[in-house]
Amino acid sequence: MGWSVGYDSNWKRDIGYGVPAYCDHPGCTAEIDRGLGYVCGGEPYGGEHGCGLYVCTEHSEYAGDKRDNVRLCKACRYGKHTYLATADHPDWIAHKLADESWQQWRDENPDEAAALHGAGARGGA
Ligand SMILES: [Zn+2]
Ligand SMILES: [Zn+2]
Fold first, then answer.
1. Which ligand is nearest to the CA of 79?
2. How far is CA 80 from the centre of its chain?
3. Residue ranges of the domains in the chain?
4. Quick one: CA torsion of 35, 36, 40, 41, rounded to 10 degrees?
5. Are 72 and 61 in contact (CB under 8 A)?
6. Which end of the chain has less Cβ packing within 10 Å, N or C?
7. Nearby residues of 80 by Cβ (< 8 Å), 6 or more positions away
8. Average pLDDT by consecutive 10-residue portion of the chain (125 residues)?
9. How many A from CA of 5 to the centre of ligand 1?
10. Pairing mode, if any, of strands 31-34 and 6-8?
């Protein structure tokens, strides 16, 4: 299965290329995934230079040689750490609440599952 779905304990959310998501740039609703292609810093959790948030191509830039030319969100690129994690994509919430592969998680985390139900009902972000 590889690295399709994992968990980011720093931002407390699901990550991986199997997780549909919105860009974490404030107000941006570009649909991306939380795979390595979109992560700030070029590796899960952001590595040495990034924050580990996920941004679309429009809201990312390559850092210079000093920072290993990694892909960064604009906040990290310009040294302003102002981004917050955006809400999960409604498709992902629906998947977590319905898919068999998440049955065990739902059984073990009934409170979180109930909270997700509320988030889904509000239409996500
Ligand atoms: Zn960043
Ligand atoms: Zn964006």
1. 1
2. 19
3. 1-86, 87-125
4. 150
5. yes
6. N
7. none
8. 80 95 96 96 94 96 93 92 89 96 96 86 52
9. 20
10. unpaired
Ligand 1 mean position to 120 CA, how many Å? 26
Helix residue ranges per DSSP H, the chain: 74-77, 90-98, 103-108, 110-121
Q: Could you give the C-alpha distances from 109 to 87, 97, 113, 114, 116, in angstroms and in order?
A: 19, 11, 6, 9, 11
In this structure, the chain runs to a length of: 125
The ligand that comes nearest to the alpha carbon of residue 73 is 1
Which ligand lies nearest the alpha carbon of 59? 2
Q: How far is the CA of 43 from the centre of ligand 1 (A)?
A: 11
> What's the CA gap between 14 and 20, in Å, rounded?
10
User: Would you state the pLDDT for residue 120?
Assistant: 63
**Residue 119: what pLDDT?**
73
d(CA 56, CA 38): 6
Nearest ligand, CA of residue 75?
A: 1
Whole-number Å distance, alpha carbon 88 to ligand 2 midpoint, is 14
* pLDDT at residue 20 in the model: 97
